[in-house]
Amino acid sequence: FILRAKVKKGVNILSAKTSDPRQWDVKQEVGNGGKHSTTTVVCQKIAPSSRNRSNSLFNEVVQMNFEIASFSSLSGTQPITWQVEYPRKGTTDITLSEIFICQKDLVGIVPLAMDTEILNTAILTGKTVAVPIKVVSIEENSAVTDISESVECKSSD
Hints:
Residues 1-106 form the Transmembrane protein TMEM132 cohesin-like domain. It holds the Pfam family Ig_TMEM132_4th. Keywords: Membrane, Transmembrane. Residues 108-157 form the Transmembrane protein family 132 fourth domain. The protein has one helix spanning 122-125, and strands spanning 2-8, 11-18, 24-32, 36-45, 62-68, 76-86, 90-91, 95-101, 106-113, 133-139, 144-146. It has 157 residues and is mainly β. The protein has two domains: 2-101, no CATH class; 106-150, no CATH class. Strand 3 and strand 4 (36-45) form a beta hairpin. The longest helix is centred in the C-terminal third of the chain and has 4 residues, at 122-125. The two termini are 27 Å apart.
């Protein structure tokens, strides 16, 4: 399959590498236009999967690295558009991801459930269960910041 990604100027696409070199061969081609940078990643399976397909719905094939060229011109969220082209099946719809950009040395982003007892009883009672969540970032200097207002949660079901 072929994976295409497009980012705005100021976000650089550094590299794409295979997650499992025994299973996949990955070749990357980068293009830098005026307003956007693009990459085309050709992923080709070189060996049959050693895992049982029923164990997981998704398999990681490729990892991509991005770089911010200048923090002064970029802040907040930056979009990345994705599209996949499968052999004999055609091209998928364009998908949008957003990455949050800040000039801090973050070492982690952690969701914290604000309830001491988490038990999903929805399957037993048929009632939706909502648990408040706080999201914090942890910087390299151990500073902790509440970023809950900048985060949104969605469920596919």
